[in-house]
Amino acid sequence: SVKPDPMASISVFEGTTVAVQGIFYLFNALLNILYVPSKAFKTFNQPPPQSRKRVVVVGASFAGLWCQRNLCEEFDLTVVDYKKYFEYTPGILRVFVDLPHLRKITGPIPSSRSKFICGEALGIDPDDKLLRVKLENGKTRNVPFDFLLIGTGSTYSGSIRASKSESTLSSREATWERECKKLKEARSVLIIGGGPVGVELAGEILTR
C-alpha cells in the first residue's frame, strides 16, 4: 500500500495560506483603485463637515477599516480600538516560528481621513447616543454618535489575537518574542485539533 506523504499535505496547506494572503493583498489593492476615482469625481452635493452625521466604528480590523475607507467622505467618522495598529490575523501563525514576519502583517491604523481614539469601549448609552471609552491614561470619555458600527471580531485563546495590554506594536513584539522562545526551547509540541488552524500551525513548526 502507498503511504501518505505528510509533507505533501503540509505543502498544500502552505499554498492555501499563501493564497489567502494573496487574496487579501489583491482585495486591498482593489479598494485603493476604487477609492481614488471616487475622490476625483466627488460632487458639489456633498454635505459640509458641520452637517455630516457622526459614525463611530468600534474595532479597527477588516470590517472596521473597510467602513473607514468607504464612509469617511460622507460622514464624520471616528474609529475606536484598544490597539494602535492593524494586524492581519490569518497570517499570525507563522510568527510562532518567524518573529520578523510580524512586521510584514502589521501596520499603523490610517487616521488622515478620520479620527482615531485608542481606548477600550466599555458601554453604550442608546438614549443619548454615547459610547463610553476608557482611554490609555485611564480616564473615561463619552464619544457621541448618530450611527454606531461594532466590528470587534472574534476572540482566540493564547497569543493569536492581541490582548488589551498590547496596545502598541512594541508590546506585541515582546509577547511574540516570549512565545517564539518557549516554542524553540520545547522538546515536544502537542496540538489539539486537526482543523485548518491546527494543521497550518503544525506545518509551520515542521518546516522550520
TrEMBL record:
Parts of the chain that traverse the membrane: 12-36
UniProt keyword terms in alphabetical order: FAD, Flavoprotein, Membrane, Oxidoreductase, Transmembrane, Transmembrane helix
Mitochondrion recorded as keyword: no
Domain of life assignment: Eukaryota
GO molecular function: electron-transferring-flavoprotein dehydrogenase activity; flavin adenine dinucleotide binding
Family matches, as SUPFAM superfamilies: FAD/NAD(P)-binding domain
Coiled coil: none
Ranges for domain FAD/NAD(P)-binding: 54-204
Cellular compartments per GO CC: cytoplasm
Family: Belongs to the FAD-dependent oxidoreductase family.
Name of the protein in question: FAD/NAD(P)-binding domain-containing protein
